[in-house]
Design goal:
The protein folds into two domains: 107 residues; 74 residues, no CATH class. It contains twelve helices and no strands. Helix 3 packs across helix 5.
């Protein structure tokens, strides 16, 4: 049983409803530190739960344990009450992390939604193992939306100035490698329509060396000004 429910259990009698126990666990939160500790535990447990769910579903599928149902999808949707896409996403999550040599200490800090996104991109062949590891570090300072923008179309160099100055060149190169030469060139043609080549080079040179502008620290090349 989760630690939060164990803590609340002492004030309940045998047979009490688990949801009521969970409510009591929340009511027992007295300060910010206690609430933050609970959220961090739950977040990390969510990652491990998804990993275990994916592994179990993968075994059901591989060994054809369909429990009397016609196929794996019927088992997932009718017996387990899961969407087919949810089940396959969990399997992908498990398979990707099983093959990567990344310790739990790094995975547990990222968050389930961002880690799921990276696993999906890795499974689709869009990230090498090295790039996955690098994006894992970037994910610590990005929201899910910012991370998703790294792989969205139109593909642009998102939030390149949000990392430390000594990492900006590496971030630009990482973005170019992930998106491929054709996408990079297409984005630059669209973003810098009407610019002279030397002005484009000058703007990029400044952006990779100057600190982020006041505000949220995000960078969008469409807002760069020509010399």
């Amino acid at each position: 049983m989760p630690e939060e429910l164990e803590t609340a259990r002492s004030s309940f009698h045998a047979g009490d409803d688990r949801l009521e126990m969970a409510k009591r666990a929340i009511e027992r939160l007295r300060n910010e530190d206690q609430a933050l500790a609970m959220v961090e535990r739950l977040s990390q447990r969510g990652i491990m739960d998804r990993f275990l769910l994916g592994g179990a579903l993968a075994r059901f599928k591989a060994r054809r344990w369909f429990g009397g149902y016609a196929n794996f999808v019927h088992l997932v949707e009718r017996r387990l009450g899961l969407k087919k896409s949810t089940a396959y996403a969990a399997i992908t999550f498990h398979e990707v992390l099983s093959k990567l040599d990344i310790p739990w200490e790094r995975l547990g800090r990222v968050g389930l939604t961002k880690l799921s996104l990276l696993c999906a991109r890795r499974a689709a062949g869009k990230l090498t193992a090295e790039d996955f590891s690098k994006f894992l570090e970037r994910a610590l300072i990005m929201t899910h939306g910012e991370l998703a923008a790294c792989f969205a179309r139109p593909r642009r160099p998102p939030y390149l100035l949000k990392s430390r100055p000594d990492r900006r060149k590496e971030d630009v190169l990482l973005w170019m490698r992930v998106n491929g030469a054709e996408q990079v060139l297409a984005w630059f043609r669209e973003a810098f329509t009407g610019w002279r080549p030397q002005d484009v080079i000058a703007a990029i040179w400044r952006a990779t060396r100057e600190p982020p502008a006041p505000g949220n620290g995000m960078s969008d090349c469409r807002n760069w000004t020509s010399p």
